[in-house]
Design a protein that fits this description.
Layout lengths: L1 H9 L3 E6 L4 E4 L1 H7 L18 H10 L8 E5 L8 E11 L5 E10 L1 H47 L5 H28 L7 E4 H15 L4 E5 L6 E4 L1 H18 L4 E10 L22 E9 L6 H4 L15 H11 L2 E7 L5 E10 L6
Length: 366
């Protein structure tokens, strides 16, 4: 029995054993780590839960089938309104000596990082195609804009200096032309491929510099940095990464103009928040869990972000508090660094932007 327990401890996936009544009779530690707030513990009965989450419902439906599905994927709710987790699982029958099914074994892994990586590649391809179309479209739009601007200049030259009404109209037209040019420029910047100039950069001085600048621009906001390890560094494009962080910090300051913004940075081993000094088998719970990650949190005590707006928050021009493509461009830059930008928010409990950047499995070497 001791040997069997040791073998189960070495298993690099989450494992649940459920009897036919729906009661969990075994759960390994990796399952506990993967499920997190959605934990299914030993002794829990899935049938007693009126609804449960999608994972529990999928398990119950599978138990009712004559033949178990070979492989299935489902999603779990994120922590406090944060990123949802993608769980891939396979099922196997648990039989007694008479070959009667007495339960099921559930083997599962966290596939969130794989899914996000695939989404990043898809986004790059869509942006490439969109960029080709946008470049031609921008030229077609700029031709008439240039003509309008030139005619405004001619009219201004022919107007008398005391004709204030016409001069005011011309000034308004020229101002609107400037706005249109800025929109075209922002859109082209967004769809243009992100080319990184990577170098090893210390993270703490970079964040301190950004917070010092932000304090001058937003004097009524209290900015602070929490960072225990001052030696954390990452292989990034310093200029672009600074641009992304600057946009997120500015957005946080704008949605809590008289509050506080707390930035924290630390290392994690694995995509989720595991201590890098831990050496438990749960580190193998999903793809990306052998890598070190840089975790940067930008938290503000704002009113929070509505759940139905969370997914739209990085769509260009969606956020009324910040016009333009700044946050969507920040997400694109972080994605180019093999990273993920997520929002955790609850109404009246503030908002938190979380950046996860992969540092590889050999950190501090690159």
């Amino acid at each position: 029995m001791k040997l069997e327990e040791e073998i189960l401890k070495c298993y690099r996936s989450g494992l649940l054993v459920i009897d036919m009544s729906g009661t969990v009779i075994y759960r390994n530690e990796i399952a506990k780590r993967i499920l997190g707030d959605n934990l299914i513990d030993i002794g829990d009965n899935l049938r007693s839960s009126s609804a449960g989450n999608a994972f529990q419902r999928a398990l119950l439906e599978s138990m009712e089938r004559e033949y178990l599905p070979a492989r299935t994927e489902t999603t779990l709710p994120g922590k406090k309104g944060g990123m949802r987790r993608t769980i891939g699982f396979t099922l196997s029958e648990l039989k007694d000596s008479g070959s009667n099914r007495v339960g099921i074994c559930v083997f599962f892994k966290d596939l969130t990082y794989i899914g996000l990586t695939e989404e990043s590649r898809d986004l790059d391809e869509r942006l490439r195609l969109l960029g080709e179309m946008a470049a031609g479209l921008a030229q077609e739009i700029r031709n008439p804009i240039t003509s309008i601007s030139a005619h405004c200049g001619l009219l201004r030259m022919r107007c008398l200096e005391d004709d204030e009404q016409i001069l005011s109209v011309l000034a308004h037209i020229e101002s609107e032309i400037g706005k249109m040019e800025a929109i075209i420029r922002d859109c082209l910047n967004f769809v243009r491929p992100t080319i990184l100039n990577l170098d090893v950069v210390p993270i703490k001085p970079l964040i301190e510099r950004l917070l010092a600048d932000a304090s001058k621009i937003y004097p009524t906001v209290n900015f602070s940095l929490l960072m225990n390890d001052a030696n954390i560094h990452a292989k990034i494009d310093e200029i672009l990464f600074e641009q992304a962080l600057r946009s997120i910090i500015a957005n946080s300051a704008q949605i809590c103009p008289d509050g506080k913004v707390v930035v924290s940075a630390r290392l994690s081993k694995g995509f989720w928040d595991l201590d890098p000094d831990e050496n438990e088998p749960a580190l193998h719970a999903g793809a990306g869990d052998m890598d070190y990650f840089l975790l940067i949190s930008i938290k503000c005590n704002a009113v929070g972000i509505l759940e139905n707006n969370r997914e739209k928050y990085f769509v260009p021009y969606f956020n009324a508090k910040k016009s333009g493509t700044e946050l969507s461009l920040a997400q694109k830059i972080i994605s180019a660094h093999k990273g993920v930008l997520d929002i955790i928010s609850e109404p009246d409990k503030g908002a938190e932007f979380i950046i996860r950047i992969s540092l590889g499995s050999k950190y501090p070497e690159f």
